[in-house]
Design brief:
- The complex is a heterodimer of chains A (373) and B (294).
- By secondary structure, chain A is of the alpha+beta class.
- Chain A has eight helices and 20 strands.
- Chain A has two domains: 236 residues, Rossmann fold (3-Layer(aba) Sandwich), CATH 3.40.50; 121 residues, Beta Barrel (OB fold (Dihydrolipoamide Acetyltransferase, E2P)).
- Chain A is elongated.
- With 294 residues, chain B is mainly alpha-helical.
- The relative contact order of chain B is 0.15.
- The chains are: A alpha+beta (373), B mainly alpha (294).
- Bound molecules: adenosine-5'-diphosphate (ADP) and magnesium ion.
- The site of magnesium ion has 2 residues of chain A, from helix 1.
């Protein structure tokens, strides 16, 4: 029952471990869990798994925590193979979406639980619990029961309980999913601060892209049991590698066609991809992705001033929403393509009323070329 | 005590936010209240009056003068305690398997435990005599196999009573425990595991304590219901070690002593209420009825 072999030196900051997930596959009967997932999480890194519901994020986390065994592939923590090691011997901290605090124990007893289980000396436990509660700023609540705390406070207790025993790795599965938006934003900052202070390696799961962008060092984009792309927020936004990532992260305009001789042919119209990020095979189905801030919208009457090197498309304004700093506008071309653009507030008024004709232009160097289906 | 009762419902409707007195549905409580008043409270008052006046309070003296009655008091409590303990020992693992098993298996186990409710208590009790009597199925089988030389005394004693009553009362133990297990948040045991607890330790420190309200309410319900059981002890029990309910019947049907019979009934009721009250020191009455809804 004691895990002396896993006991780490007890200082309040832990050095984060290195997690390697290599070609892991897991299915539930004939339903897909994850197919071939590989991620290397660096020591001390805050890595987020972002993706739609059912894409395999929780399955991956449960494989790492030891609640599931992979059908194939390997998971190692600091070079040690984890498969076959039961959850209680992995020394991995986990924060659950519904907090999972023990309702029959006080806050203090909850945080003390992993230390008590490890048969750590009483005096040492006391000081560790106190330090953990202080870090999550809940010292005054030590003697209360979880039901007497708000959702945000309960989640902080869950966090304290998950790191008090100095795990090499912290897993969090949509820990803020049950909180309202305002509290969620405050907790994002709080969790990031605590994890930085601890120096822990964190694998964080969310389906909220703003949350992922705000908190993470790197983000793994999940789709249908696979990782589509792994990179920094900027990588994913500026240099998406697949159509799914381009579509899922941030807003964009996606123009589909076939790629030939440095241009995308879209409904007979050749759009230059000169200098665009990404490459696809000659003659293959491809798409050009442009972020709203890289598009310029001008009235149909002012096209003469547009430089030759830029791409242009004629479109009709269908809808504009006032956003404060600019207007978010949707335009439609004759081919049915929907364009997502920002129009400055000082733009001529004939640009943002439904039915207005406009020309959309962009520099091909600011677009991204991705394979299409 | 009533012997047949529907099992405690697993889920009660959430309490209304509106003040109950203003809801039009409150009117629905009246038929129930009238029913209880006419068929329970009035007869109870009548019984109490009878115990004190027919011919007088000396009816109660029987407990001090005739050792049969004081012994019966002990027999009744020991048997009820025995039944509750045995039922708990069977019901907890049963409820846990029901909780952990796949859906189809849970449904089958649910029906099995409910079966006693679909058959008459009398029929069920006679069925037990077919199994337990000296020439019954168990004894014949063991004799034929040569395991025993003489038939075992399986009924007409506390063993028979315990077997019959445990079987009859098992649902009242299984359901509160099962429903209190269902209310345990499913993440708690996995959380304990990640925090370093072995499966056994996670069970002992997290799952078991959180299922205790169901255990306590099941135990109390079975114990209290056992105190008033009549048919099973009468058919499976020893004629020498009567339970109190048997003495009541004896006083009224054989001796035609309504006063003494009433006095025994009142003593049983008062002791039962005292136990229920003591029980509520540990667990609230609402929890006894609902199996510890948070
Ligand atoms: N216990 C299970 N039994 C069967 N299928 C499951 C189970 N858990 C998850 N799945 C399936 O595996 C896929 C991935 O689920 P999950 O990892 O929970 O996704 P996410 O956490 O990204 O929402 C889903 O298609 C889901 O239906
Ligand atoms: Mg999930």
């Amino acid at each position: 029952m004691t895990q002396t072999q896993l006991r780490q030196p007890l200082t309040m900051t832990a050095t984060g471990g290195e997690l390697r997930i290599a070609n892991v596959r897991k299915s539930y009967g004939n339903s897909r869990g994850v197919e071939s997932v590989s991620i290397d999480v660096r020591p001390g890194e805050f890595l987020t798994m972002l993706g739609p519901s059912g894409s395999g994020k929780t399955t991956t986390l449960n494989l790492v925590a030891g609640f599931l065994d992979p059908d194939e592939g390997s998971i190692t923590l600091d070079g040690k193979e984890l498969s076959g090691v039961p959850p209680h011997l992995r020394g991995i901290g986990m924060v659950f979406q519904q907090y999972a605090l023990f309702p029959h124990m006080t806050i203090e007893e909850n945080v003390d639980y992993p230390l008590r289980v490890r048969k750590i000396h009483r005096a040492e436990r006391k000081s560790l619990v106190a330090a953990a509660l202080e870090l999550v700023q809940l010292t005054d609540y030590a003697k209360r029961k979880p039901s007497e705390l708000s959702g945000g406070q309960q989640q902080r207790v869950a966090l304290a309980r998950a790191f008090v025993f100095k795990p090499r790795l912290l897993l969090m599965d949509e820990p803020l999913g049950a909180l309202d938006k305002k509290l969620r934003e405050a907790m994002q900052i709080e969790i990031t601060r605590i994890c930085r202070e601890l120096g822990a390696t964190v694998v964080y799961v969310t389906h909220d892209q703003e949350e992922a962008l705000a908190m993470s060092d790197r983000i793994a984009i999940y789709n249908a049991g696979r990782i589509e792309q792994l990179g920094t927020a900027e990588d994913l936004y500026k240099r998406p590698e697949t159509l799914f990532v381009a579509d899922f992260v941030g807003e964009s305009t996606v123009i589909k066609g076939s790629y030939a001789k440095g241009a995308l042919v879209h409904h007979g119209r050749s759009l230059s991809t000169q200098g665009a990020h990404g490459s696809v095979a000659e003659g293959s189905a491809a798409a050009v992705v442009i972020r709203p801030e890289d598009l310029t919208v001008v009235p149909a009457t002012q096209t003469a001033a547009i430089p030759e090197a830029l791409n242009t498309l004629e479109a009709t304004v269908t809808k504009c929403v006032y956003l404060g700093q600019s207007r978010k506008c949707l335009l439609t071309t004759a081919t049915g393509l929907v364009i997502n653009a920002r129009i400055p507030l000082h733009a001529p008024p004939e640009l943002f009323n439904p039915g207005d004709s406009a020309t959309v232009t962009w520099d091909p160097a600011n677009s991204v070329l991705v394979p299409s289906d | 005590m009533i012997e047949e009762m529907t099992p405690p419902t697993k889920t009660l409707p959430a309490p209304s936010r509106r003040s109950p007195s203003r809801s039009p549905w409150t009117a629905l409580i009246w038929p129930g209240l009238v029913f209880m008043a006419l068929l329970f409270i009035l007869p109870f008052i009548q019984t109490a009056v009878r115990a004190l006046t027919d011919p007088g309070p000396q009816n109660f003296a029987i407990f001090f003068t005739d050792p049969v009655y004081s012994r019966s008091l002990i027999t009744t409590f020991v048997t009820a305690l025995f039944v509750a303990v045995v039922a708990l020992a069977i019901a907890y693992p049963y409820a846990y398997i029901m909780y952990a098993a796949p859906k189809a298996m849970t449904a089958v186990m649910m029906v099995l435990v409910l079966l006693p409710f679909f058959t008459s208590l009398l029929v069920r009790t006679y069925a037990w005599t077919v199994w337990l009597q000296e020439t019954g199925i168990i004894n014949s089988a063991l004799l034929n196999l040569g395991v025993i030389e003489e038939p075992l005394q399986l009924m007409r004693n506390t063993l028979g009573v315990t077997i019959g009553m445990t079987h009859a009362l098992l649902p009242f133990m299984v359901f509160p425990i099962y429903s209190s297990m269902l209310r345990i948040q499913p993440d708690l045991v996995p959380a304990a595991r990640t925090l370093g607890a072995t499966p056994a330790l996670a069970f002992r420190t997290v799952f078991l304590p959180l299922s205790l309200p169901g255990v306590m309410s099941g135990f109390l319900i079975v114990f209290v219901m056992s105190l008033g059981y009549y048919v099973t002890p009468a058919l499976l029990g020893s004629p020498r070690d009567s339970m109190m309910s048997e003495l009541v019947v004896n006083q009224i049907e054989q001796q035609i002593q309504f006063g003494t019979g009433s006095a025994i009934g009142i003593v049983l009721l008062v002791l039962t209420l005292a136990i229920l009250f003591a029980g509520t020191r540990i667990i609230s009455f609402k929890d006894i009825v609902t199996g510890g809804r948070p």
